Amino acid sequence: MNGVTKEQIAAAKRMTAIEFLRRYRPNDLVKSSARGEFELRSHDSFKINGESSVWHWKSRGIGGKSALDYLIYVEGVRFVDAVRLLCEESPAYTEPAHESIERERPPFALPAAAPNNDRVVQYLLGRGVSIPVINYCIEQGILYESVPYHNCVFVGKDEQGQPKYAALRGTYQYGRPFKAEAPGSDKRYGFCIPPTAESDTVAVFEAAIDAMAEMTLAGSAADKYRLSLGGIYVPEQSHTIKPPAALEEFLRRHPHVVRMELCLDNDPPGRTATAALAEHYGKQYALTIRLPQPDGADYGDLAQMAMRQKALKRERAEIAR
What we know:
By secondary structure, the protein is an alpha+beta fold. Helix content is 33%, strand content 17%. It has 10 helices and 14 strands. A hairpin with a 6-residue loop joins strand 6 (143-145) and strand 7. It is globular.
């Protein structure tokens, strides 16, 4: 096959569609009226079995089981691109919190670095992140651009400063944005923007870009720890939550931290997770809930809104001259 090998295709087919959707499209995946079945908010005629992963898009008359089939036939990603995304960047499915059996992780490996970070810088600028914040993260060795796909790579490190985790975010403009984790990533070591001076506060976000966006809105001040959980898991019928591995490890390594800011997305999953985390950590830490406004927003949205408002003010000032 031109562009990919048989081995790459076989590797890409190992991830099921339900695994991919639960990890990378959780806000689009909702329960249907049938037991054990889910549908997509964006395509209500799309149905998928939560156990077998067999899916059927009734309005199109197509179906499948693997994440590869889903990317090709539902999201419209080219076959070679879909194989490369699933194989080269290897999206890592995180088992639901109630699972007692942990799958063995492959050896961790960071994607190769591009000779420069130009595409990542331009992408993050378009997301409303400031140049000082981008440069600070690059200088800290927690952000760079990969090859050959020019993804943003958000790095998480252990106590010795060794990379143990990497979240990947596509910078291409077609289709839905690619999100994945590097093979063997250990979710205990989340992407974390450190302060310039010691701080007793950690702000908790769902995604790395949200952390960078909030830092931008704060005047690019590196005045506290900003930790990304790499996504959230919310129990369906309970307000209790398994403590996020990244947050638990961070708190273990930073016993001096006594203040916690919950800055998750202001959507139903984010609000539910916030309530559960507040209940779990509220007695141990001075806790502040800082959900972005309005409803449905995340800090990335707020940074983009602020960027557009600044651009509009500049345009009006130029016209007034």
